[in-house]
TrEMBL record:
Assembly information from the UniProt record: Monomer.
Cofactor note: Binds 1 dipyrromethane group covalently.
Function per UniProt: Tetrapolymerization of the monopyrrole PBG into the hydroxymethylbilane pre-uroporphyrinogen in several discrete steps.
Lineage, top ranks: Bacteria, Bacillati, Actinomycetota, Actinomycetes, Kitasatosporales
EC number: 2.5.1.61
SUPFAM superfamilies recorded: Periplasmic binding protein-like II, Porphobilinogen deaminase (hydroxymethylbilane synthase), C-terminal domain
Segments forming domain Porphobilinogen deaminase C-terminal: 239-310
Domain Porphobilinogen deaminase N-terminal: 10-225
Gene name of the encoded protein: hemC
InterPro entries reported in the protein's UniProt record: HemC, Porphobilin_deaminase_cofac_BS, Porphobilin_deaminase_N, Porphobilinogen_deaminase_C, Porphobilinogen_deaminase_C_sf
Name of the protein: Porphobilinogen deaminase
Signal peptide start and end residues: none
This protein's UniProt keywords: Porphyrin biosynthesis, Transferase
Gene source species: Actinacidiphila bryophytorum
């Protein structure tokens, strides 16, 4: 292990949303612990996608959050970036010259149901017929509609805190929803875990590929940074997300595809991967559940899951959805 050059400041590019800032601050802390004395600087960026309040598909899809920061890492104005792996598109390769030098140990992957402040409801079952649930993830929409076709799923955008404010109806203009679905790990990172009521098991609401995983990205040819970040890598999480993302990549999903995928490591050290592709209203879906073989490359497991989903008609489902 070589020491990070003492005269170099490590600049971390991050979105300026509170969740992204919390994540980057946490990573800065880990780096300082790993390399005492290191100078770390956060470079917050308000991306085009953060400023745009309309439909993301109109401005280049959700990959826009990461694209702008990737360009800064590529261009050298920052040395690294912290991305939610969930927000990193699975259908296009990482930009030229960039690598994920590490992923951190996976946080909670589950989604939770949040109710407006003061509500005494606790679960999805408590919601009256026709209630409005806020989410913009097609994956969540499909799975909610599958169990509760009566619910009106309403789109919501913006940072996690903003979504909760909208739910609480803090402003006159807010569209009232009766509940919202958010990631447990996002709430946790914002110190808002107490707002979560029903925590959906992964069987009730299969997570997004990469859920709960923070990816540390840098330039491939930047030896000192790649080496330092590599020391923070969590092998098991890396294997799991590699399998999930290989599955997603093979599906050629677009950002409007209701794809879910979750890989976990068993007691025996073997991976098990579950993938699902839904029609937008959740009324139909295809599903693969596979166990890794001893010694199998995680990407090969992902490819097998993908092949199984395609065999069942995943491509037809994905193609039928406007994007
Ligand atoms: N789409 C925004 C986003 N990207 C990552 C997370 C949560 C953290 C994670 O799953 O890594 C969230 C918030 C949410 O979905 O509620």
């Amino acid at each position: 292990m070589s020491d990070f050059p003492a005269d170099r400041t490590l600049r971390i590019g991050t979105r300026s949303s509170p969740m992204a800032m919390a994540q980057a601050t946490m990573v800065a802390g880990l780096l300082r612990k790993e390399q005492p004395g290191i100078r770390v600087e956060l470079v917050p960026v308000t991306t085009q996608a953060d400023r745009w309040h309309g439909d993301l598909a109109q401005v280049g899809g959700k990959g826009l959050f990461v694209k702008q920061i990737d360009a800064m890492v590529q261009g050298g104005s920052v040395d690294m970036a912290v991305h939610c792996m969930k927000d990193v598109p699975g259908d296009i390769p990482l930009p030229q010259g960039l690598v994920f030098a590490a992923v951190l140990a996976r946080d909670d992957v589950r989604d939770v149901l949040v109710f407006p402040q003061g509500s005494d409801l606790q679960t999805l079952d408590d919601l009256p017929v026709g209630a409005a649930v806020a989410t913009s993830a097609v994956r969540r929409r499909a799975q909610l509609q599958r169990v509760r076709p009566d619910l009106a799923v309403v789109r919501v955008r913006g940072a996690v805190g903003t979504r909760i404010d909208k739910l609480d109806g803090t402003r006159e203009s807010d569209t009232a929803a009766d509940a919202a679905v958010l990631a447990a790990s996002g709430l946790e990172r914002l110190g808002l875990s107490h707002r979560g009521r029903q925590v959906f098991s992964v069987d009730e609401l299969l997570p997004a590929v990469g859920a709960g995983v923070l990816a540390l990205e840098c330039r491939e040819d930047d030896g000192p940074v790649a080496e330092l970040l590599g020391r923070l890598n969590h092998e098991r999480t890396m294997a799991e997300v590699t399998a999930e993302r290989a599955m997603l990549e093979g599906l050629r999903g677009h950002c409007n595809s209701p794809v879910a995928g979750y890989c976990a490591t068993g007691q025996d050290g073997l991976l098990s991967l579950r993938g699902m592709v839904f029609t937008p209203d959740g009324s139909a879906f295809v599903e693969a559940r596979l166990r890794g073989e001893p010694g199998e490359d995680p990407a090969a497991l992902g490819a097998r899951a993908c092949a199984e989903l395609l065999r069942q008609g995943a491509a037809e489902i994905i193609e039928a959805i406007p994007h």
